[in-house]
Design goal:
Blueprint (H helix, E strand, L loop, with lengths): L1 E2 L2 E2 L5 H11 L4 H10 L4 H13 L5 H12 L5 H10 L4 H12 L2 H12 L7 H13 L4 H16 L1
Helix pairs in contact: 1-3, 2-3, 5-6, 7-9, 8-9
Length: 157
């Protein structure tokens, strides 16, 4: 390609990957999909990903940490699991992350409930509304029941 009298080479697969990573963290699978969508050969893509991983620029663990730090305060474990799986993160890394999050699930759900509602449900309809809200955020049924019924028990005391 000639531009302004000088030959300009199209960007390499590696350069495209670096450009994408400059915008935000991508998992290895997300980057692979984006690069293949730009008609790069699978061999070029894998070579570029291997080089970037060797330099620490592609790191699924860092992608997981970023997502968890950004989203865990608002979402439950099942929703986070879903988002991580959609990013193509390995099943082992997802399982490890979910095990770490399990111990904070109740406290995170409590904080989300407090911010949204703040007041105890006065009726079954309101309790159901609160339970649906927490469930839609990905909190487990057990955690949702504890919050909704536990708070109702505390109000009676």
């Amino acid at each position: 390609m000639i531009q302004g009298g000088a030959a300009v080479n199209p960007p390499t697969v590696k350069a495209k990957a670096v450009s994408l990573l400059a915008q935000r963290e991508y998992s290895r699978q997300e980057l692979r999909d984006k690069l293949k969508a730009e008609d790069a050969s699978p061999e070029e893509v894998e070579q570029a990903l291997a080089q970037l991983a060797a330099k620490g620029l592609v790191d699924d663990t860092r992608v997981v940490e970023t997502l968890v730090n950004r989203r865990a305060g608002k979402l439950g474990a099942s929703r986070l699991r879903q988002e991580l799986q959609a990013k193509g993160v390995s099943a082992e890394l997802v399982a490890e992350t979910m095990a770490d999050l399990k111990c904070t699930e109740l406290a995170r759900a409590q904080a989300v409930w407090q911010k949204k509602f703040g007041l105890l449900a006065a009726s079954a309809t309101d309790r159901n509304k609160q339970a649906r809200f927490l469930a839609s955020r990905g909190f487990s049924g057990e955690v949702v029941r504890k919050i909704v019924s536990g708070l109702a028990d505390d109000a009676e005391q």
